[in-house]
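Lab notebook, bench 4. Still working through the backlog of constructs that have no structural model yet. Next entry is a single chain of 257 residues. Request: give me the structure tokens for it.
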Amino acid sequence: MKPAVVLLHSSMSSKAQWGELVSQLSDSYRCIAVDLLGYGATPFPADVDEDYQHTLAHEIDAVNASIAATLEPGEAFHLIGHSYGGASALHMARRMPQRVLSLSVFEPVAFHLLPAQHPARAEIVAVVARINASASAQDATRIFIDYWNRAGAFDAAPAAAQEKMTAMIAKVKLDFQALLGEAATLAELSALSMPALVMSGQNSPASTRLLAEQLAQALPNASAVTTRGGHMAPITHAAVVNPAIVNFLSNAEITAG
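Model written out:
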């Protein structure tokens, strides 16, 4: 039986973002791309009210329920995640380290791993504050999209795309709530001994590049790779990101064997 690979996408995206990578891996792996809560075909979290606190545990509970029908009980798998999906993957690896054969993450937005005074964490906290203080969902979405891409990116998008993105900003706010509320530290990640690939884009915000650098140092068996493109490089520069993941997985399989 082919080894399994679980793929987790970024905020305001869906499992479809991994289409090209899945096609490249499918000859050698059983690929299980998952829609995170509130994205793609997966429903928005239930019972959300003013007292609701979203967590990465909620996300991984849903991921585990989704993949249970495809994996054998207790079966190990390779794990890939981008941005929010990368932070979710780190939570999953900490929760079930014995089942994660390897970990590939592109700029996981796990800012909770950094001290409160760290510039990268302070920068993202300020961005979240601006999003939450926005007068409209569209204004909040503009701040989110422009931060991760470039100034003017939201307004440059077609009206239909703007509408689609704006419809997802409520879940993005929950994503940030989960990220900043997670109780984990870089020191705790030193217990994760599986092979790891930590990727970042050369044009990404300093916040995620700094976090990726710290993460690669904390994981005991990690390699760090910088690719062309920015934070959304797994989508915009898949031609350079995907081969790095494919090669890493091949080496991880040899090591595991």
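Notes after review: The two ends are 14 Å apart (CA to CA). Residues 124 and 207 are 7 Å apart (CA to CA). Flag for follow-up if needed.
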